[in-house]
């Protein structure tokens, strides 16, 4: 009998964590720490693929299951189905490995090894049906909200983009064209690089020297919108883990990066050190903190539902629900109100969220302008920006189905605010 595959075992455990314990994959990262890097990466890839295809896997399994198996065995069946149907793995190899894994699970699991074997063989004989299944739909709590905001056709496009997953984008400190050539990457119109093949990121040229960092093309735009000038004092409010701090510091600004989370700020410090740029940091609750002096510019990348990042975090719809959104919207409003009070005369604020929900974007901004009638939205000036991304308000709305021909981008909302003169 084959030996136990640690990556598949870890992937199945991650699935149980997401689907039963409602833990994100990021929250379970510690569970993978003991694995060698290759197994760790493979476990993550398998879990991500299974979550992206979960409704299709369940549709394939349904005719072959008289009752729902225990969660750990259902995870094995879902994983095997996705490997066979979506990842084109050789069925006999998958079945053997997962039967071995099941045997290792103690007496209770062992009794299910026959079921795993029989069901996965039936799935393997029926892969033509997989091709006919629709791309997975978002869960109802989110689908309904997005339908109201964007309509059915747009939601179906977003679901297809979530299913397709996300390429790896980089932000470079300088000389994007030269780095694109060196890394064999596409230079996107907005200045980010898109890797043709991800591979082991830390092995790529320029990683160790800190010449670039991983950052989705959409996530790179709020700092570009702020357009910090050398020597300007800039507050990066809600800064960690620091992708935008790195951009602002690389622009030559005098950056203060503030976040409530000390561990996340530790990661920001590591990123600053690797990229050899500097920023002051502050661990603080932005609802209580007070600056010593006003700033030229503030970037508020507010905590949000993160619904714009589902294509790279397919665990999110299974772990989160509509609960908590109201509190986030209230927190965002408080953060905007405080940040506007911390600007020098003539200063500017960029408000951004990686959310697809209008209450965290368009409606949040409209409400802020009602509370602060002397503030205006400034026209977005970003190289490479498509006029179709600019909303009637003058903000920027990005969705996972934006740039479909290039592989999409994360969902984001952003706007620059200045006091009317
Ligand atoms: C969207 S993330 C920021 C991502 C970051 N700007 C980047 O580009 O890497 C939101 C951040 O807000 C922080 N946060 C949440 N509530 C906060 C508060 N009351 N005060 C300060 N930071 C807060 C979280 O710890 C989290 O790191």
Automatic annotation (TrEMBL):
S-adenosyl-L-methionine binds at residues 238-244, 259, 285, 301. Belongs to the class I-like SAM-binding methyltransferase superfamily. RsmB/NOP family. Keywords: Methyltransferase, RNA-binding, S-adenosyl-L-methionine, Transferase. The keyword Chloroplast does not apply. Residues 139-420 form the SAM-dependent MTase RsmB/NOP-type domain. One of its GO terms (biological process) is RNA methylation. The active site is at residue 354. This is 16S rRNA (Cytosine967-C5)-methyltransferase. GO terms for molecular function: RNA binding; RNA methyltransferase activity. The keyword RNA-binding applies. It comes from Rhodobacter aestuarii.
């Amino acid at each position: 009998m084959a030996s136990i595959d640690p990556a598949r075992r870890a992937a199945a455990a991650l699935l149980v964590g997401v689907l039963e314990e409602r833990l994100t994959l990021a929250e379970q990262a510690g569970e993978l720490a003991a694995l060698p890097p290759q197994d760790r990466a493979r476990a993550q890839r398998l879990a991500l693929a299974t979550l992206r295809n979960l409704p299709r896997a369940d549709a394939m399994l349904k005719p072959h299951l008289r009752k729902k198996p225990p969660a750990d065995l259902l995870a094995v069946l879902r994983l095997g189905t996705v490997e066979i149907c979506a990842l084109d793995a050789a069925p006999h190899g998958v079945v053997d490995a997962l039967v071995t894994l099941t045997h290792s699970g103690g007496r209770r699991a062992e009794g299910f090894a026959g079921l795993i074997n029989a069901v996965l063989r039936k799935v393997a004989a029926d892969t033509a049906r997989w091709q006919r299944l629709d791309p997975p739909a978002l869960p109802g709590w989110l689908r309904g909200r997005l339908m109201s905001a964007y309509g059915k056709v747009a939601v179906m496009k977003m679901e297809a983009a979530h299913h397709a997953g996300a390429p790896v984008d980089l932000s470079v400190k300088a000389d994007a064209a030269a780095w694109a050539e060196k890394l064999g990457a596409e230079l996107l119109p907005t200045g980010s690089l898109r890797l043709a093949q991800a591979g082991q990121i830390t092995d790529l040229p320029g990683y160790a020297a800190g010449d670039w960092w991983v950052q989705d093309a959409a996530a790179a735009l709020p700092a570009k919108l702020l357009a910090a000038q050398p020597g300007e004092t800039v507050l990066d409010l809600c800064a960690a883990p620091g992708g935008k701090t790195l951009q602002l510091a690389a622009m030559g600004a005098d950056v203060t990066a503030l976040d409530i989370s000390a561990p996340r700020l530790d990661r920001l410090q590591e990123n600053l050190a690797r990229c050899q740029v500097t920023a002051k940091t502050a661990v603080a609750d932005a609802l209580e903190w007070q600056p010593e002096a006003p700033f030229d510019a503030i970037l508020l990348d507010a905590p949000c539902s993160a619904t714009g990042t589902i294509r790279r975090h397919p665990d999110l719809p299974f772990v989160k629900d509509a609960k908590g959104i109201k509190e986030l919207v209230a927190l965002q409003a408080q953060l905007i109100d405080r940040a506007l009070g911390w600007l020098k005369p003539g200063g500017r604020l960029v408000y951004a969220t990686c959310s697809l929900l209008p209450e965290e974007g368009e409606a949040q901004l409209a409400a802020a302008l009602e509370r602060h009638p002397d503030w205006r939205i400034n026209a977005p000036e970003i190289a490479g920006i498509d006029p179709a991304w600019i909303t009637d308000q003058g903000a920027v709305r990005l969705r996972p189905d934006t740039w479909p021909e290039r592989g999409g981008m994360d969902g984001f909302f952003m706007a620059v605010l200045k006091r009317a003169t």
